[in-house]
Specification:
alpha/beta; Rossmann fold; 8-stranded mixed beta sheet; two-stranded parallel ribbon
Length: 210
């Protein structure tokens, strides 16, 4: 596939770039600071320096691609909103460039649904939601924009992320993974690429976890 990636210099995005290149995909990494991109020069990698919050600046980078992937997110719980503004910008650029496939990473923590156990619904998520109110509101904002976009979107929702190795993980469509409380960034990258390659995930959320 011919992919455009946002968030390529982040802790998840770095794994996503490496995984995509290893799988033979062509990757356009849109970054603010190319010096932060850890992946070495690669014949399938193009680096574009642009602000992802400026639709005009990223339109050429998304036009004609098979899919656009976003692993953007705030660096900490006190940072300004990133996902909501980025979703609006990316959607506008994709509409202008005629690209339809969008896979966007948010999180499972801000969503309480049938996939969660009783303790998770009533105790864990309410407590975590108070601590991460800003990022969770940002994720919810992004998801509203994506659902209303009219694009062929998939939202990937991981739980708490780790730097552990790859291992078998579970996924669930349109609900959280029961008992799936963590996932390595390596496996999140695998889940994102799998979702991008599967047209059946369009119009759905995909949760992943151990």
């Amino acid at each position: 596939m011919d992919l455009t990636m946002f968030g390529a210099t982040g802790r998840t995005g770095r794994h996503l770039v490496r995984a995509a290149l290893a799988a033979g995909h062509r990757v356009t990494a849109v970054v603010r600071d190319p010096a932060r991109l850890e992946t070495a020069a690669h014949p399938l990698l193009e680096v574009v320096t642009a602000d992802p919050l400026d639709p005009a600046a990223i339109e050429d980078a998304v036009a004609g691609r098979d899919a656009v992937l976003s692993a953007l997110g705030a660096s900490d719980r006190t940072s300004a909103a990133v996902c909501g503004p980025a979703a609006r910008s990316i959607i506008a650029a994709m509409r202008a460039g005629g690209t339809r496939r969008l896979v966007f990473v948010t999180a499972s923590g801000h969503v309480v649904d049938a996939g969660d156990g009783l303790a998770t619904r009533r105790i864990v998520k309410p407590l975590v939601g108070r601590f991460l109110a800003g990022p969770f509101a940002d994720f919810a904002d992004a998801e509203r924009e994506i659902r209303a976009s009219g694009l062929d979107w998939t939202i990937v929702r991981p739980p708490r992320l780790t730097d552990g190795p790859a291992k078998p993980y579970r996924t669930a469509v349109d609900r959280n993974v029961r008992g799936g409380l963590s996932l390595s960034r390596t496996d999140l990258a695998r889940a994102v690429l799998a979702a991008a390659a599967d047209p059946a995930t369009a119009g759905h959320t995909v949760a992943a976890g151990y």
